[in-house]
Every structure is written in C-alpha cells, then in structure tokens.
Design brief:
The complex is a heterodimer of chains A (about 350) and B (about 270). By secondary structure, chain A is an alpha/beta fold. Chain A folds into two domains: about 100 residues, Transcription Regulator spoIIAA (2-Layer Sandwich), CATH 3.30.750; about 180 residues, 2-enoyl-CoA Hydratase, Chain A, domain 1. In chain A, helix 2 runs antiparallel to helix 4 and helix 4 packs antiparallel against helix 5. With about 270 residues, chain B is mainly beta. Chain B has a single domain, classed as Beta Barrel (Lipocalin), CATH 2.40.128. Helix content of chain B is about 10%, strand content about 60%. Chain B has a ten-stranded antiparallel β-barrel. Chain B is elongated and about 60 Å long. The chains are: A alpha/beta (about 350), B mainly beta (about 270). Chains A and B meet through helix 1, helix 2 and strand 11 of A and helix 1, strand 6 and strand 11 of B.
Chain lengths: ~350, ~270
C-alpha cells in the first residue's frame, strides 16, 4: 500500500471516529409548567426529606390532595401559595422556598415556642464585658469568678483570636456559662467547634441520619462525633448551657453535644429542636428550595427535631425581669462553684 | 451501529499506523505552547440542578510535546488547562454557579505529511471541576472528575509568507472510554458521601453514553523561533447514563504563543511538530 493510500484510509477512519454525536435532550431549559414544578417539588421531598419519621405526615396523601387542587390555581403566585401550603404540613423551620421576588419561610414551627431571653438582662451581670463583633460578648459575672459567654448566632464564626480572648477569661474562671438562648442556629460545624473546647477525648454524642432516596429501605446513619480542640480547652471547668424554646437547629445540636459532657448542665427551657441539616435544591422553573436532608438523634435514637429537655427547667420570671434579674442566669449561678467569690 | 463503526475505525487506524512506528532519527526539540482563551460556556450539572448554566469561562492552557526518540513520525504531548468561570447563570436566571476546572492529558500521536500534515493519536486525560453555588445552603460545593481515553486527530496546511510560515489547521479529540464521577439527583459531592451514594455517582463511559468533540480551528504564524496562534475553540462533552445528564459546551477564541525549548532550528521544529 502506498503512503498516499494509507493516508487516505487513516483519514477516513479518523472521520468516522469523530462522528456520531447523538441527539441531545432539552431538559436544561427552564420549565414553568405548574404540573412539572409541583411534581418536582413533591419528588424532591420524597427523595431527600429526612424527617418524615418525626413528622407523621402522609406525603402520598398530601400529593393526592394538593395535586387535585393544582387545577384550580393560576399563575406563579397560585403555584407558590399551593406549594408553601403543602410544605407547611411538615412544620419544619428549615424549609424555605424562594422565587426571586417571593420568599417563604415555614412559620408554623415556632408558633408555640417559648422565649426566655431578654437582650437587656445579661449585660447587667457583666460590668466589664468584652465584645466579639457587636452581638457576641463575654466577661466575668459581677462579684463572681464565673465566666459568661453570650453566643446568639451559630453563623458568626469564632476565630482563633476570638478563642484566645475567651481563654483569657475562661482559664481564670471557676465555672463557665454559655448562653445560647434565642440562638436560631446556623452552621453546625461551628456548634461542634465550640463544643470541642469542652471535651478532652473524642466522644460520640448522637447520630446523623440521611434519607437515601425513595428506593432505600432505611436511612444511612453516621455517628455525630466531637473531636477535642487542639488548643484553648476548658475541660476542667463546670459549664452551664442556658437554653430556651427559641434555641434551634445548630444551637440544639450544641446542646446535644454538651449533654454528653459530664461537667455540663443544661439550664432553662426545652430547646426548639430543628434536627434537619438543610440543603438546597432547584425546581425546573428555577425556584430555590431548602429542606431538611437528614435527622439528628441522641445516643438513645430519639430525634432532637422536637427539642432537647434541660437538666434543670427554669423559665424567665416577669417580676425578676422587671427587677433587672435574669432568672435563668441566677439559677445557673446557684449550680456553679465560685458564684460567691469576687 | 455507529458505535461499532467507530470502534472498527479506531482498530483499523491503529493497524495502519504500526509500520510507521520506527523510522529515521530527527533532532528532538520540545515545543511549548501557551494560550489564553475566552469562551462562552454552557454546563448542565445534575449535582446542583437540571437547568443549564451559562456564562464566560476564561482558560489558560499549555501544550508541551516533542517527537519520540528514534522516530520522526511519533510524537507525544502533555496538555493542561485551568479554567475559571465565575457567575454562570441558570436559564431561569435565579441562581448562580462558579466553576473552577483543571485538565491534564498525555497524548501519543502519529504524524505524517509535509505541507499537508495529518496527526492521529490517543490521549489519556484526567480532569475535573469544582463548582460552588453561593445561594445554596450546606451543599454549596460540588466536585466532579473524570479519567478518559480519547481519540485525537489534527490536520493542517502550511503556507510560505516570505521568510515566515503560516500554518492553518484543526485539531481535536473525541472521547472513547473512561470513568466519571459526577453527583446526581440534585446532590452535591458531600451529599453523595453522606448518603453512601458514591457508587451511584460513578459512571463508566464508552461510545454509548459519552460523546463529544473538543477542538480548535487555528492559525499559527511562525517566524524565527516563535509562533503566534489565534484560534476558535470549541469543546463539547456529553454524558448520559442511568439518569445522569451532564454536559459542558464551550465556544470561544484563543490567542497563544509557541516556542521551542531549543532555540536552534526551533522554527523548523515548531513547523514540523504542528
């Protein structure tokens, strides 16, 4: 075979090699059909929602009922209202739906939540408070050797420098109060990180369970572990964690962690719960949905979705508050050593 | 049927190339090309959504190659590219992704011809992308990756312009077989780990579920020891299997520079190497 003939043959073979792209599907365009988006919304929950076992909601029945009503709704607004009404059945504060100009947050979950915190009271106990940002503060409780730390939002990151400032107070204290009342959660990693400063060995504090799709018989379970921090550990100090009914999600998870710390006591009200780890999904029309992808349980297998009971139940007393006293801080001080020393 | 034809064509091409494996010695000079490209990219990534995301992707690429010792027909080439696509927007214009990609490949080629040059070969490549969705909560980061064998070809024509050389050509590759990790069902990488779904996210590919054509239509202007390149780049990769739909499509322009490692006879080396 001549070189020219061989070249032609090889070239022909190469052309065949490069051919053959198949017809593409057009699934990637936004789809604004009410039926398509309703079904996608239902499917996403069916496959990914992790808290059905705690909610006692028949999701198949919800499909029948709301699919029937879908024929009577009009436009985006009607669809948005219908989907959010269906989501409301689950009473889960982690569920949100955003259509760009409308945002829905599930509201039924906190209708009966009890708030036992007043912003104005803790600062009265802290004559020399130090601030981390503008809402997180700490210091010695007046006339005691007890340190107090207010952490109202687990979206606020504590840097190494922040921990070093806390250490300057905590290491000289006889006991520590961590006040997470009204903390509606945030990043559970930050909750775990704070808890890690109170553990001197690795500890399993509960379990994370994830829905493994509608074809799965049982959820996937992982141990929730706290790994001790490498520096600034306060493991020899008694700790009181202050909670109320508005202590949610990552803050509830922090309470779950501290429940396994033998030096910690939980004081206040039952937490608001919130066990699901929220993740985001996108509907075919581009609306963004957030839902709980999993469940968190204690070592006993009980979900923390409906809250964690304190070791000592105390509520804010209105008369105390009028006198400038925080009933729950007072109760914690009674339990902790060093509350009478200067 | 088409897949079988492509497979037979690949085997035939390999058999026809064998006689050229050993041939005359030629001076070996490594030729390096660097380029920057600005492409319009469209991606569909089931790890975040079913919607297509589109936007500008800026890439920096390199290609480094030479003829094998003992051959003036067989060459090797290492290719690499880093791409950044900030702010890809979905078709509903409600969400945004940032994509950072990296690709690395090793190719072996058979070259023939003089003024008309033909290059055929195969490339073993790996690559992946890190994607972030700032509006997503807890699952805002996802990673995909792949290892692929691709069939590659290139054809070019040389023109004399005074004492310089102008070369124009097209080179490209098409996937043959490989494996890809891409999260699906709207999950991200982290979620696939949480849910023990890693196995479900691994996809083996061959002709039936992976197609594509990555390439460039280029013009090189070779003068002295340096070559200047302008190119139109087109990349198109498409995977579909077991419910997974994934594609990356790019079209854009590239400018680049080519230099030979050894300055001696470098213009000649670049010209022959393509």
């Amino acid at each position: 075979m001549t070189a020219g003939a061989r070249l032609c043959l090889v070239f022909s073979a190469a052309i065949l090699l490069l051919g053959g792209c198949e017809v593409e599907k057009t699934f990637t365009s936004a789809d604004y059909s009410s039926v398509v988006n309703f079904e996608a919304f239902w499917d996403i929950f069916d496959e990914d929602y992790g808290l059905f076992s705690s909610k006692y909601v028949d999701w198949d029945e919800a499909h029948s009922e709301y699919r029937h009503r879908l024929d009577t709704v009009h436009g985006d607004e009607g669809l948005f209202a219908l989907l959010t009404e269906m989501a409301e059945l689950l009473e889960d504060g982690h569920i949100t739906l955003s259509s760009g100009n409308r945002t829905y947050h599930c509201s039924s979950w906190k209708e009966n939540a009890r708030q036992d915190f007043l912003d104005s009271l803790p600062p009265k106990y802290l004559p020399d408070a130090g601030y981390i940002g503008n809402i997180t503060y700490f210091g010695f409780v007046k006339n005691t050797a007890v340190a107090y730390f207010r952490y109202p939002d687990f979206n606020k990151i504590l840097t190494d420098y922040s921990y070093s400032r806390l250490d300057a107070v905590f290491s000289r204290s006889s006991a520590i109060i961590i006040d997470i009342r009204g903390n509606i959660g945030g990043n559970s990693t930050l909750a775990e990180s704070l808890a890690s400063h109170f553990f001197d060995s690795r500890a399993v504090v509960g379990y994370h369970l994830f829905n493994n799709g509608r074809h799965s018989a049982s959820p996937v379970r992982y141990p929730a572990e706290v790994i001790p921090a490498k520096q600034y550990r306060w493991t020899d100090k008694p700790v009181a964690v202050l909670t109320d009914g508005m202590t949610y999600s990552a803050a509830s998870y922090f309470v779950l962690c501290m429940k396994q710390n033998r030096r910690a006591v939980i004081v206040g009200g039952t937490t608001g719960g919130g066990a699901g780890l929220p993740v985001s999904r996108e509907l075919p029309n581009g609306w963004l949905l957030e839902l709980s992808s999993g469940d968190t349980t204690g070592l006993d297998g009980v979900s923390i979705e409906n809250g964690i009971a304190p070791d000592l139940e105390v509520h804010l007393d209105a008369d105390d508050a009028l006198r400038g006293k925080d009933t729950i801080i007072e109760a914690a001080l009674q339990l902790l050593p060093g509350s009478k020393s200067p | 049927m088409l897949s079988i034809c492509r497979y037979l064509a690949a085997v035939a091409a390999l058999l026809l190339l064998l006689p050229d494996l050993f041939s005359a010695e030629r001076e070996k000079t490594t030729v390096n090309r660097w380029g920057i490209s600005v492409n319009y990219a469209r991606i569909a990534d089931h790890s975040f959504s079913n919607l297509q995301y589109g936007g500008v992707l800026v890439g920096i690429s390199g290609a480094h190659g030479a003829f094998y010792r003992g051959s003036d027909s067989w060459s090797w080439e290492i290719t690499d590219r880093i791409g950044v696509a900030p702010g890809l927007v979905n078709t509903a214009r409600t969400n945004m992704l940032n994509m950072y990609s990296a690709d690395l490949g090793y190719g072996a080629y058979w070259n023939t011809g003089s003024r008309w040059r033909l290059r055929l070969g195969s490339v073993l490549g790996c690559g992946g992308a890190l994607k972030t969705a700032p509006l997503f909560k807890n699952n805002s980061v996802s990673v995909d990756g792949r290892v692929m064998i691709s069939a590659a070809m290139g054809v070019s024509r040389e023109f004399r312009v005074g004492s310089s050389v102008l070369k124009a050509g097209w080179s490209g590759s098409t996937p043959v077989a490989g494996v890809m990790f891409v999260p699906q069902d709207g999950m991200t990488t982290t979620e696939t780990v949480w849910k023990n779904a890693v196995a479900r996210s691994l996809h083996f590919a061959s002709f039936h579920n992976c197609q594509g054509l990555d390439g460039a239509l280029w013009v090189d202007f070779l003068t002295g020891f340096v070559g200047l390149r302008a190119a139109v780049v087109h990349n198109h990769r498409w995977w579909h299997s077991s419910g997974t739909q994934y594609y990356v499509k790019e079209i854009g322009v590239q400018i680049g520079i080519t230099v030979a490692l050894s300055m001696r006879r470098s213009a000649d080396a670049i010209r022959k190497y393509q």
